[in-house]
Amino acid sequence: MSDRPAVLCLRFRRIGGGLPDSAGYEGLLALLGAFTPVVEAAPPGAALADVSGALRYFGQDAAGLASVIRVRALALHGVDCAIGAASNPMLARMAARQATAGTTFVVPPGEHAGFLASKPAAALDGVGAATARTLCGYGLDSIGRIAAAPLATLQRITGVRTGRELWERANGIDRTRVVPNAAARSIAAERSFPRDELDPEQHRRALLSLTEELGARLRGDGQVCRSLAVSVRYADRTGYATLTRSRTLPEPTAHSAALTSLAYRIQDSFALQRARVRGIGLRAEGLHDAERAAHQLTFDPVDERARRIEAVSDRLRTRFGPGAVKPGRLAA
Fold first, then answer.
1. C-alpha to C-alpha distance for 255 and 238, rounded to whole angstroms
2. How many Å apart are CA 200 and CA 190, to the nearest integer?
3. pLDDT at residue 185 above 70?
4. Does the domain made of 182-331 have the CATH classification 3.30.1490.100?
5. What is the DSSP string of 92-141?
6. Is pTM beyond 0.90 here?
7. What's the burial of 303, exposed, middle or buried (CB within 10 Å: 0-12/13-18/19+)?
8. How confident is the model at residue 297 (pLDDT cuts 50, 70, 90)?
9. Which of the pair, 283 or 317, is modelled with greater confidence?
10. What is the DSSP string of 147-195?
């Protein structure tokens, strides 16, 4: 991939606050599709776009094209954008996190080292709380120090594969590409707290409401998912950080109880019991038709009863609205 900034990461926010609804989000993806066919959805409020061809066609640099997109999103959808521009998806995502609404943050060619160097280890893609603590224990508390560390040292600390990935990312190397038409392969939702939330029970309730919502949406669309990704945005000494972790389900499913069980395990793996959490997101990935999914029979009467109750609840939601039926833990 060229060192020229040709990947945009866009974070969408309505002018009145909050994320665009599903129809608005689809409209924003269509807007991006008018500039480039290489658009990767990151619902519910972001997208990646490889604009290599568009830069030549429109005779713009990345910042100029981002401005054109922002004006159209604002005029047509009432949505403002914080946009990051860089030479690869990882750097573009990190740049977008640094941009504010109505601005574009560009990582210029050859300047990724300066952009990354002072950021904390936890800001690097793929570095969770546990890995960050391990790295900090060896004095590798910034991306710059990770980049300067010998590859062999990182591999001894974190393992061969993880060590190489850390070294490459810290040096601005991202081997992934923008994958077009990703919207059909995942759905997502998020919950934001009005203030930094310390209560683990509130974190749990938010995650439960997300698994209930996504489970109902999957079943309503006749789909199942293969894996879940949980994102937690929390306050730290540098401002706010976001951790994301995904795991594969034992079998493709849209069963809310199975989604909740895995989501809780992912949340527990963050070890953020005392964190000041501002928002939690959940993404169901690897979607495909439920008719093609095999379900392992358990002969468990509790599981079968739960599935029958779930089917009845879905019919009630269809008739009376999504809030007609909810778990007792959410109704309290």
1. 38
2. 17
3. no
4. yes
5. HHHHHHH--TT-EEE--TT-HHHHHHTSBGGGSTT--HHHHHHHHHTT--
6. no
7. middle
8. very low
9. 283
10. HHS-HHHHHHHH-HHHHHHHHHHHTT-------TTGGGGEEEEEEEEEE
Tokens of 109: 């060619």
Return the pLDDT at 147: 95
Q: Which CATH architecture has domain 7-110?
A: 2-Layer Sandwich (3.30)
User: Position 330: which residue type?
Assistant: L
Check if the beta carbon of residue 284 is closer than 8 Å to that of residue 188: yes
At 93, the pLDDT band (50, 70, 90 cuts) reads: very high
**Residue 238 to residue 120: CA distance in whole angstroms:** 8
CA 321-330-282 angle, to 5 degrees, is 80
Q: Which CATH number fits domain 113-170: 3.40.710.10, 1.10.540.10, 3.40.630.30, 1.10.150.20?
A: 1.10.150.20
Residue ranges of domains in the chain? 7-110, 113-170, 182-331
Distance CA 93, CA 116 (A): 12
Residue percentage of the chain with pLDDT more than 90: 45
111-148 confidence digits (pLDDT tens)? 999 999 999 998 888 787 778 888 999 999 999 999 99
Query: Six-digit token pair at 166?
Result: 């850390």
